[in-house]
Protein: Large ribosomal subunit protein uL22
Organism: Maridesulfovibrio salexigens
Amino acid sequence: MEARAIAKYMRISPRKVRLVAENIKGKPVEEALNILKFTPKKGAEMLSKVLYSAVANAEQIPGVDVDSLCVDIVKVDEGPTWKRIQPRAMGRAYRIRKRTSHITVVVKEM
């Protein structure tokens, strides 16, 4: 059986989250949580919250052993971009793009 968790509109660039997401693909949940715990990135904290949620969703399925779960899919998609204006010299304005991410984590039994 598999369980999934999705976090939408997370205020971090998908490129930055993917750096961390590659480290936990295919790993057992306990090992993945340890990796995320000691990774000094903002994306690691966000991914660990989504992973905890996926494990909690798996607990709701009858007959699933939580200790035998492994990370099957970690998908980081681009969400909508917030556009802001940065005033510059001589009346110009630069555009600031504040990117968001949709993070999907799927766990399954080994």
About this structure: The helical segments are 14-21, 29-37, 42-59.
